Amino acid sequence: MRLDKFICKSTELTRTEAKKVLKSGEVRVNNEVAKNAAMQVHENNLITIDGQQLSARGSRYYILHKIVDTICSNVDEIYPSVLHSLEVDKAFDLHIAGRLDADTTGLVLITDDGRWSHNVISPKKQCQKTYRVWLRSEIDDDKLSALVARFDSGLQLQGEDSLTRPAILTRVEIDNLVDEASYRSEVLLTITEGKYHQVKRMFAAVGNRVVGLHREQIGKITLGDLAPGEWRELTEDEITQFS
Ligand code: URA
């Protein structure tokens, strides 16, 4: 890891403050003065500021129940970043492991461990993400099994070179659907990749339209009773499945 990043991780200093301390010559790596912010260091190195030894704070891992009109980005745009919801130090030093659209709700994982988030996001790792999807058109009984088979064998999305990976589609039976509802069917969809607007584009490819989208599960991690807008630290068990 870069030396300035290590200093930020192990103190309350910002990246700019860390660089200032480095310039001042107060930082030593293995007893040698170190001024280069980009120097690569390891936790086993003896790193001191003004003689005080630093030890890197461990990585941080959170789950958040995203609400609509917030964005999975480290900068605010039309809508505010979900990172404002986390009442933790230096929340904007964290990143989001698998984005959701502004109008999508549900499970978001947030960390500062790049290798861990790669294990969550990379299609090669085949991590399952399950979405509850509300659709504008009904799925007729006689078309359901053919549709399930199409999702299983892969769909061609516009502008993509390869078919989507096998996805598991299950229809949810709805009791008492009122005429005014914006949707006519509800399904659960499990995918193992995260192409841009993937779920919306998959249903567009089969002639339907997503009118509501909510991520319920990533790997074995679920929202449980986390209310919309709430967050918590992940447990050791939840963290290790992607370590
Ligand atoms: N697929 C989408 O289309 N949108 C999301 O937010 C997540 C998956």
Structure characterization notes:
The chain is of the alpha+beta class and 243 residues long. The protein folds into 3 domains: 3-53, RNA-binding S4 domain (Structural Genomics Hypothetical 15.5 Kd Protein In mrcA-pckA Intergenic Region, Chain A); 61-123 and 223-240, Pseudouridine synthase I, catalytic domain, N-terminal subdomain (Alpha-Beta Plaits), CATH 3.30.70.580; 128-218, 2-Layer Sandwich (Alpha-Beta Plaits), CATH 3.30.70.1560. 21% of the residues lie in helices and 24% in strands. It has 6 helices and 13 strands. It has helices at residues 3-10, 15-23, 114-121, 141-153, 198-205, 236-240, and strands at residues 27-29, 32-33, 47-49, 52-53, 61-66, 95-96, 105-111, 129-135, 168-172, 185-191, 210-218, 221-222, 231-233. Strands 5, 6, 7, 8, 9, 10, 11, 12 and 13 form a 9-stranded mixed sheet that branches. A 4-stranded antiparallel sheet has the order 2-1-3-4, with no helix packed on it. Strand 11 and strand 12 (221-222) form a beta hairpin. Helix 1 packs across helix 2 (15-23). The protein is elongated. The mean pLDDT is 95. Uracil binds at residues 100-101, 104, 197-200, 213.
Entry keywords:
four-stranded antiparallel sheet; binds uracil; Structural Genomics Hypothetical 15.5 Kd Protein In mrcA-pckA Intergenic Region, Chain A; nine-stranded mixed sheet; alpha+beta; 3 domains; Alpha-Beta Plaits; 6 helices; 243 residues; PsdUridine_synth_RsuA/RluA; RNA binding; elongated
**Helix share, percent:** 10-25%
Work out the helix count.
6
What is the CATH-assigned architecture of the largest domain?
A: 2-Layer Sandwich
CATH class of the largest domain: Alpha Beta
The CATH superfamily label of the largest domain reads: Alpha-L RNA-binding motif
Mean pLDDT: 95
Strand content: 15-25%
**Outline type:** elongated
In this structure, how is the largest beta sheet organized?
9 strands, mixed
Radius of gyration in whole Å, from Cα? 22 Å
Which cofactor or ligand species appear? uracil
CATH topology name of the largest domain, in short, is: Alpha-Beta Plaits
SS elements, strand count:
13
